[in-house]
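Hey, resending since the last one bounced:
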Amino acid sequence: MAGQKQELAFLLGGHDAGEGASAALNAYLSTGDSQYLRIWEVYFNYFVNAQIPNSNVTTPAESVIYVQGRNETIFNGGTWAEQAQVSAGLDGAFGTNSDRVELSAAFPAAEHGNPIAAALIAYYRLSNDPVALRMLNRYGNWLVRTQISSGEFAGAFPVTEYYWLMGWKPRMFETSESAWILSELFVLTHNQTYLDAAVAAGNFMISKQFVNVNDTHIEGALPYMSNETHYSNSVSTNHAGYSLLAWADLYRLTNDTRFLIAAERYANWLLSSR
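The structure tokens again:
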């Protein structure tokens, strides 16, 4: 995966760019050093120029693919390009201002968009920048459209209901992360669609939580779950933070005690697995 060369940062695609932007913003807030704010601004402008549809991105807002004997429409409007090809420009030297950059969304998925959304949520709370809010609403609408009907989210591949019917499985990391992002978007916008989607994701998480099992090592945990695999009892802590954040948010927003119970069970499992 390549990135986009800037004077202050070399921007990587998807989650790398989102996490880098969050790091720059947090560094500025912690130190007050304006150099970190300038780096954040580079990231922010990159997000503006990389969100689909955009003349800077080769991936269209909608495309049709032929899968298993039928045409399927893939909707990419609102997500960001997560890959870039950088080549030397007219001067033939790589790393100069004449470099050519081609942005594309090769794997349009929540895995790549959510970290960018998280950075923009933090920034909007500080700035009330309407440009950030517009980007977040466009992404939120895309996120809702890519949610599988049972509430879950898949990993990095073009997502449609048809893939689910073919037996492709979602990933718990993207599901728990998306549940939190959607909850936070509801808090910012009061758009009920975001909360409904977050609740659906939270309910899916509850439906997969290990409860009343003989194996104390997984009691309260969530299965890892990954694309094109069958469900198993393997567990992971890589989505622990987002699981707790999502269920805690949903409890505060809905007063549904099932989310609180699920979060407590999950926290107890984390503590017992130290």
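Residues 110-127 form the longest helix (18 residues).

Sorry for the duplicate.
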